[in-house]
Every structure is written in structure tokens, then in C-alpha cells.
Amino acid sequence: MLQGPTGLSSAGSTSEAIHTAKGVLTAMLDAWAKRHGISDRAFSELFEVMRASEPSLAASPIPPRSQSEAAAQQLIRLEVAYRGGRVWRNNSGAAQDEATGRVVRYGLGNDSRAVNAVFKSSDLIGITPVTCPCGRKYGVFTAYEVKKPGWSLRPGDKRGQAQFNFIKRVVSLGGYARFAASTEDVL
């Protein structure tokens, strides 16, 4: 009968608790509608009206004590999930294999030291669902380079410029990408 809001990602205990609470509420409302003979169509319409008026997580500012990049990243992950998308952490770096002494690079696009110096993939990589006019749903590649609130790209910032190169490439190929410091930056 009732289709609940899109589930939240498993970004941590807070998001799991929110997801569980929404699931319990959805089940309770569904049972109530059945008991009172509310049609599936009427209940779905009511749910969509309620969902449309539900305040976004973006309306909740980051508390002052949480003005860190890590706090912004967790809130951005929750907001993306709230809107129906999914993003995952994209750790990037290099480590030496103790057994062979070989350097092993990890992270999206981290092919070599030279490439990584001018092209750094974003912190969060994922998919944003988009429905075309014909009704078919597509997933659009999505990338967020998360920064501490108040950060801005400066001309001499080589790391930031390399991250911006990745963002520009994603956008040029039809994806969604940007620097993000709060839920207000979620596309």
C-alpha cells in the first residue's frame, strides 16, 4: 500500500536510526489505513502531499560546534539519501605493499603520482536518480568534494585545482559534481 520515503544510506548509527524510525512509522500508517478502509490510491496521494511539504534536511543548519569537514560530509550524505540518491566515500591514496615493496594506489582516477597531481577524484561518489518525461528512471554519476564550511577555491591551491579538474570533467560528461560544504550544496 504505502511506499515510504527513500531509505537512508548506512552512513552511521544516526542514519540507521532515522531509517528505522521512518520504516516503523510507514508500517504503522499502512496498518491504520487498512483498518479504516483507506484506498491505496487515496493513501498514496496523501503520502505524496505530506512528503512534498516535509522540510528538507537542508533547512537544518549545521550546528556551530560541528563546523568540520567530517560533520559536513555526514550531513551531505544524509541529504543525498533523503533526496533519493546514494553516495559512497571515495578514499584515495597510496601505500607500500610490505611483502613486495610495490606501491599500491587506490581511489577513483588515482592512476599515478603524475595524474593525481593534476586530477583528484571527489570525496563522495554516487548516483542521483533522474526521471525523464517518458517516465524512465536513470542514474546520473554524482561527485561531491566536501570542504569545511567557509572554504573557497584559491588560485594557488594546487590540490583544490586538481579537485576542480575532476569536477569539471564530470560535469562536461553530463554528471553532477561540485564542491560542497553543507546540505545546501546538494544537487
Question: If you had to describe this structure to a student in words, what would you say it looks like?
Answer:
- With 187 residues, the protein is α+β, with helices and mostly antiparallel strands.
- The protein folds into two domains: 13-54, no CATH class; 65-185, no CATH class.
- It is built from five helices and six strands.
- The protein has helices at 13-35, 40-53, 69-82, 113-118, 158-172; strands spanning 86-89, 93-96, 103-106, 124-131, 137-146, 176-180.
- Strands 1-4-5-6 form a four-stranded mixed β-sheet. A two-stranded antiparallel ribbon has the order 2-3.
- The longest helix has 23 residues, at 13-35.
- The two termini are 30 Å apart.
- Mean pLDDT is 79; it is low at 1-22 and 56-65.
Structural class: alpha+beta
The succession of helices and strands, N to C, reads HHHEEEHEEHE
Spans of 5+ residues with little confidence (pLDDT < 50)?
Answer: 1-22, 56-65
Tell me the number of strands. 6
**Count of DSSP-assigned helices:** 5
Q: What share of residues are in beta strands?
A: 15-25%
Number of spatially distinct domains: 2
Query: Globular, elongated, flat, extended or rod-shaped: what is the shape?
Result: elongated
Overall pLDDT level = 79
Biggest sheet layout: 4 strands, mixed
Radius of gyration computed on alpha carbons: 20 Å
Strand order of the largest sheet: 1-4-5-6
Beginning-to-end CA distance, first to last residue: 30 Å
Helix fraction bin = 25-40%
Q: Nutshell version of this structure?
A:
This protein has five helices and six strands. By secondary structure, it is α+β, with helices and mostly antiparallel strands.
